[in-house]
């Protein structure tokens, strides 16, 4: 004998869940559109005026919104305006290189309150965590905030945490950052949750949030400075790979740049040997161009009548690596970032676009980075803000 199961009706949202959804929608609108009145929030969300009033009262009571003046100039009485409370939470971003640590602190609205830069020359490896904590504490002090105010710290670094061991991979150039308990040690020193992310991935986060890749869900960011790296975004999400090493294209084998594995498993060759900073400087010297670093050599070539052949060869080298990446990923867009391509400006971008069109069947559009300042630091703040808002704005 079989028994017939009665179909279950779908569960309706509970009143508290629906309130939480409305709260989150209102907070996102306030972040995107600035101060809004009760009527404006009701109009944008479809909520009635009484419901919008209750929502604002609820959010004000828990410190997520604050009144900030009134409307003026309308036919009726002035209406109270509200905005997200900047003091609801604070975050920090940290960008680490082999020579500096840069820190920025922002409030939950995304306003940067203070930045601080510390040279790392002479840092003992054993004191790295302590020195980073000092740099963050100094930035918080400059922002005139309480020492324990941070809700999230995101560190951008030239490597990738191994998801299995927690150790930092691809970062032999950064002594002091290889403890398997690195995250726990940083959290203890900073007094806040910490996450570590590949620096080029964070540059891609910044471009997607408000830079050259805004509104694009499938793109590749190529970073070229002293070293070479890439970030891959598929369907709007970063692709990290099984070990966190997706985008580590510096040692990608290419024609005229094979990879060799020497003694002690030291790797050389690949894309790095074509467009890494030492290769760019060597290419510039071959064309009779000066420059203390890759960016200076490229910028100087733009101002020199004889710089054209150098820029053309550099563009073809960049396009060669991009053609390999594009043939696998087929992105809608390629973003050129880092000091070297940024110094080349629109002229180098056009040369890369033209060369890529000759080498690759997929022909994605090539754009220059549109994030001012440090894309890595900006991306670290964006990632920290997203995490903090998820917690703060979840009122259910």
Tell me about the largest β-sheet. 5 strands, mixed
Strand content: 15-25%
| Count of helical regions | 12
Q: Strand pairing plus helix content: what structural class?
A: alpha/beta
| String of helices and strands | HEHHEEEEEHEEEHEHEEEEEHHHHEHEH
Low-confidence stretches: none
Protein name: ROK family transcriptional regulator
InterPro entries: ArsR-like_HTH, ATPase_NBD, HTH_MarR-typ, ROK, WH-like_DNA-bd_sf, WH_DNA-bd_sf
Family: Belongs to the ROK (NagC/XylR) family.
Describe this structure in words.
- Residues 26-66 form the HTH marR-type domain.
- It comes from Kitasatospora phosalacinea.
- InterPro entries: ArsR-like_HTH (IPR011991), ATPase_NBD (IPR043129), HTH_MarR-typ (IPR000835), ROK (IPR000600), WH-like_DNA-bd_sf (IPR036388), WH_DNA-bd_sf (IPR036390).
- This is ROK family transcriptional regulator.
- This protein is an alpha/beta fold and 396 residues long.
- It has helices at residues 15-33, 38-45, 49-61, 128-142, 182-190, 199-210, 272-275, 277-286, 294-302, 308-329, 339-359, 375-392, and strands at 36-37, 65-70, 80-84, 90-96, 100-107, 112-119, 150-157, 160-161, 168-169, 194-198, 219-224, 228-234, 237-238, 259-261, 267-269, 333-337, 365-368.
- The protein has a five-stranded mixed sheet, with helices on both faces.
- Helix 8 (277-286) packs across helix 9.
- The longest helix is centred in the last third of the chain and has 22 residues, at 308-329.
- The protein starts with 14 loop residues before the first helix and ends with a helix.
- The model has no long low-confidence stretch (mean pLDDT 91).
